[in-house]
Each structure stands twice: as C-alpha cells, then as structure tokens.
Fold this protein.
Amino acid sequence: MIEIKDLHKSYKTGNNSLHVLKGINFNVAEGELVSIMGSSGSGKSTLLNILGMLDEADSGTYTLDGVPIKNLNEKIAARYRNKFLGFIFQSFNLINYKTALDNVALPLYYQGMKRKERIERAMAYLDKVGLSPWAQHHPNELSGGQKQRVAIARALASDPKVLLADEPTGALDTKTSYEVMDLIQKINEEGRTILIVTHEHDIAEMTKRIVNLKDGVIIDDKKVDQVKALQYV
Amino acid sequence: MFSRDNWDEILEALSANWFRTILTAFGVLWGIFILVILLAAGKGLENGVKQGFGGMATNSMFMWTQVTSKPYKGLPKGRRYNFKIDDVAAIKREVPNMRFVSPRNQLGGFGGGNNVVRGLNTGAFNVYGDYPEIIQQEPMDITSGRFLNYSDINDKRKVAVIGDGVRTVLYKQGEEVLGTYIKINGVNFMVIGTYKKKGNNGNSEENQKQIYVPFTAFSQAFNQGNNVGWMAITAQDGSSITELKGEVLDVIKSRHSIHPEDDRAVGNFDLYEEYNKINGLFVALKSVAYFVGILVLLSGIIGISNIMLIVVKERTNEIGVRRALGATPWAIRGQILMESIFLTIISGMAGIVLATGVIALVNQALSGMDTSEMMFLNPSVDLGVVMVALGILVISGLLAGLIPAQNAIKVKPVDALRTE
C-alpha cells in the first residue's frame, strides 16, 4: 500500500539546515495498523506529513497504492489527498461553525458529490462512530471523545485507502483514548490501512506493528501482539 | 459556481460573526450611498437648470442688425441696414442643415408705453410678428384656441395669440377671450388663442405678457415693408449651430455689402454655446460626484479587504483542514473571493436601496412645492448609473478579495494545520 525508499527531508531555518529525515525505508501492506513512535524531534510528524502529501520530501520515492507521489502541484495533491487519505488530528480540527454532519460531509463536498447523497453517506459514517443523535450539534457542544469520533467519521467519509492519525489520543483522557482506539481497531479489522503517530506506549501496544524513529532514522520495526482496547473500556 | 452548497458555505462563513460582517458591510453601503446621492443631486440640479431653458430649441441662435464698423465697397462705416424678408430664403438656400429660420418683428419692449387697448383696459406688451414655426423654437402651451398657422400668414389675417399675463390685464376673470378684439397701436386684431410659457430664466412673468400675430399681418399693419427685425435660427439635430453660425453671417454680410471681417455689424447670441457651457458644468459636476463617490467607496472596499485578511488569518487552521480534506487552491480562493464579492454586492445593494429611498422621499417633498423657481427638480439616477455602480461593486469585491484569497493559499497546508 505504502512504499517509501530512501526518504530525506531537511528544513532550512536561516543559515542552518536541519536534517530531519535521514533515509527512511518503510513499507506498509494493506490492512496494517502501524504506529510510528519516537520522541519529539525524531521526525515522526514530518514523516506523517509527507505521507499525507501535506509536505514534500527532498529526495527518495514514495508510492501510494501503486501511484508514484512526486512533483505534485497543489491541485493534484488536493485530489490525491481527497481520494487516498483520511486525516485524524490531535486537536480534532473540526470546523466550528458547521454541524457534526456537515463536518463529516466536507470531504464529499470537495469530491463534488450531490448534496443529498453526501448527507446520506455522512450520516451513515456518523452512525458508524455512534454519533448519529448528535448529527446537528456543533463541535463546541461535543465532548473531546465525541469530537474525535466525528473527526474519524470525516476521515472515513471519502472512503480513503489509508487513515493517517497524528496523536489521535493526545488531547484525550485515558478512558476516552481507549474508546477511540477501540473504534480505530474496529475500523482496521474491516480491512483499512491505518497509520498512527504517537508517543504513548499503551496506545502503540494497541496497534499491530510499531516503528521506532530516532533522529530521522528507523531504529526498530517490529510486529507486536495487539492489545485489544475493548478490555479497558 | 452558484450551487446551493456554495451559498451555504458563504452564508455560514459570513454569519459566523454577524456583528463584524455588518460593520464591514457598512463601509461599502456608505460609499455607494454617497455615490448615488451625489449623482442624484447633480441630476436634480441639472434638471432644475435645464428647466430654465423651458424646452427651448437649444440648438439655436438669434441675430439682429447693428451698425457697420468698417467701410466697404464705397459705403461708409457707421451705416445702418435692415434684414430683408429675402434674407430668410437666402439663408435657407445657402446654408445646409437649417431646421428653422424664423424672421421676427417686434413692437414694444422693456419699459415701452401702453400699446394695447381693449375697451377701458390698456397695457404695455411685447407684440411679435411671427411665423408658425416659432412655437417649436420657443415652446409654449396653448391653453385655449390655437396658435398661428400658414393660412394666417398667407391671408395676412389680423389675428393674435395672447399670453396669460395679457389676458389678466385686459380681461375680467372668466371672461371669454377667443373671438374678441384687441387694439394694437390702433389696429384691431382678433384673439384666436392663449398661451402659457414654461421656463424660469428670471423673466417668466414677462414671458406671459406677449402677443403673437402673423408676420405678414404685422408687416402690413405696422408699415414694416420687407424689413425683418431679427431672426431666430435653429439648426437640425446633429449639426451644431455654433459651427454653422459663420456661414449664416457670411450670407448676410454679402447680401448687405458688409465688410467680411466686420464682426460688429451683425449682432448675435448663440444659445447653443451657452447651453453647452452649462452642459459642461454638469459634466464636471458629475465627474466630481463619481470621483468623490468612488473614493468613499474605495475606503469601504479597503475595509472589506482588511476584514477579509483578518478572516483569512483567523481561519488559517480551517483552511489547512479543508486542504487536507481535498480542497483545491481554487476552491479556497474561490470561496474567499465569493465571500468578498457577496458581501460587497449585498451591502452595495442595501446602499443603493437606501439612497433611492432617500431620493424618493426628497422627490415626494419636492412634488408638493412649486419647483419652477427652485433650480432643483426631480433628483434621480437612471438605471444605467445603477448598473455602473453594481459593476463597480462586483469589480471592487473581486479586488477586495484578491489579496486575502492569495494569502489564504500562500500558507502551506502543513503550516496552516499547525496554527491553532
């Protein structure tokens, strides 16, 4: 699903060049649930941004579902993001003046889907995350866990190949974190590929594979026995 | 582009902060309000002043004889001469594009003695010997009876059309006027019509105290022979009398042995030139109105641009999210532009509506008054101006949104998402 070869990325700040990713080789097969761990500054967010086409690598190749991702202009990048990827953010990043339902429907809007169909699909995904009674609520009327569920529903709405989650439980308490992880595990069991960036070990243990990043290189890449989040809920 | 979803997006974004949206809109509203009011006021003044011309054929000149100032062909300077009735035909023949060439004779005048008698009543009035065309050069409303016609001219009928002012002096109120006789300088004329003139060029009172009789009857009754006192000449629409004036004067000069360079021998007044001067004044007035109005509007637009910049700044994160979800740069840009144009047009429309409301009120107030002396009449803007204003609004909305829209997509999605 994801193939990365010899990926390099550096940031220029003034005269200093900060080499963040120093040659990453990394493959993800379809249906995997991978967590990327590392201390802050290890380059895990940068890696995720490159995977999410929000940022571009300096060198190396990146193939997503057989499509080489390089030299994208913003228009094509936008289309690929819409088609291939679903994002889940630490701070939810819901649009405050839209209802939960409209938030979920937003990726479909950018696909150019008709309003009625869009609302139906969005409603189905809200139902999937158990929030259909809250469809007409605005984000500020929802709890943190509910917001993250809406965000997950939104990420799923465009039926992407890969879900990218950047510290999805970072802003949640432990109990809510496990609930969200339970949801993510369920989605993964339906066959969807999911990448999670986190620095919490208990969260990482709930994935099927842990990739450890340190100073821009992968130091460890191992499969783990998945801990079911459901038992803590 | 104009789907319901688009409108929903725009309305949602704008209604997210009502108070700010309204304050912003007010700048543009005020600008367009000022523009429309200024234009309408200018139009009102123009209407009022042009009313002063009383619908006169403005493409006209008047010409009378003076004393020659140069000797020519053995004739001395200081010589008097008269226009002859043949001059009229000569002008019509030799100068192209003449609409009317009306010879006129006149009795009485400013401060003249009593010259008209009816029974025991007497009065001092201007008496004109005229051709029927004069009513098209100096419009008047015939309030009863009829004006002169060519039968009167050909038969030299001693008939007269009198002004309202004449009627009030010579007749009792409600007395039948038509068919009665008045005595002008001892000669009886039958009254066949009454008139009332429009216009307010300072002597509207005097304008109603005139008597029109057929030119031929006038010449005969008052011993004018072939002499013509003065002429009122109107050129055809599309050619200017100011340009034809020289030719007219040349014809007269050659027919009366006047030195071609004698500028004083033929007195004339070019109404068209005066009219054009006034017209020029209103063009200038209109430019000032546009200038001031558009500048005020510009400050409103800068306000909108400014607010849109702040809005974009505030929504950087949202824009980042939208882009992560698959919004193309043009979708983002388009939305900011549409918001800006929408805001501009709505507030502009409100301004136009407000301004036309005020104009309507002013018109209503004016309609109760006699405006003939007011130099201000029917302030209005025509649809064309409103269309121009709307055009300006759309363009300015576009301009106002351009920089903010560019700003919105200048931030990379990854940076936009990092903004909290």
